[in-house]
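Inverse folding, one chain.
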């Protein structure tokens, strides 16, 4: 029962880390990355569809993205989605594909992006702590219902805290790596 609870905690915490990884891919560094626009929602016949499902995205040059729609009629919608996003990029549409030229990041913009990264890290840490809190509550209910002993409860809480510490360290590592990437000139 305790092992199942720890396994559930590990799974939920790993999911929080996976979401963080996906979020951070969308925060741009000095280099072009398809992850910057892959999840951008595009209005496709009334449905919000991720760009990755509507086009191929490539990196022909270090500071450029090339978006080639599967259906040329979606070009205008893709262009509109890029313009309304907070990416700060201007699409160049030649009628067949869209080029996105990424400007150099200013020091001010780098600091802004680093702040956004720290906010996302904090959200993930809060999520991990909430998972720990919920599962400790479950363990205490098991103990109150006499399903586990007091010693099992203490051991379970310790194991849960160890898992939380390990996941927190992973979040810090991911954050440090991303901030270093952003601040790199």
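Residues assigned per position:
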């Amino acid at each position: 029962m305790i092992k199942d609870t720890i396994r559930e905690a590990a799974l939920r915490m790993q999911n929080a880390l996976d979401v963080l990884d996906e979020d951070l891919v969308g925060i741009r560094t000095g280099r072009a990355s398809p992850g910057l626009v892959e999840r951008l929602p595009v209005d496709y016949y009334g449905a919000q569809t991720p760009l990755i499902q509507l086009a191929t995205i490539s990196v022909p040059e270090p500071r450029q993205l090339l978006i080639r729609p599967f259906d040329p009629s979606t070009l205008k919608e893709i262009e509109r989605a890029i313009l309304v996003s907070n990416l700060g990029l201007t699409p160049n549409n030649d009628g067949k594909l869209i080029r996105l030229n990424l400007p150099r990041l200013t020091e001010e913009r780098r600091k802004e992006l680093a702040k956004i990264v720290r906010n996302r890290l904090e959200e993930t840490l809060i999520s991990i702590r909430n998972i720990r809190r919920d599962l400790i509550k479950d363990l205490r209910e098991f103990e109150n219902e006499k399903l586990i002993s007091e010693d099992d409860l203490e051991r379970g809480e310790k194991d849960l805290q160890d898992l939380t510490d390990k996941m927190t360290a992973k979040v810090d590592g991911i954050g440090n790596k991303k901030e270093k990437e952003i601040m790199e000139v």
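The first strand starts at residue 41 and ends at 44. The chain has a mean pLDDT of 88.
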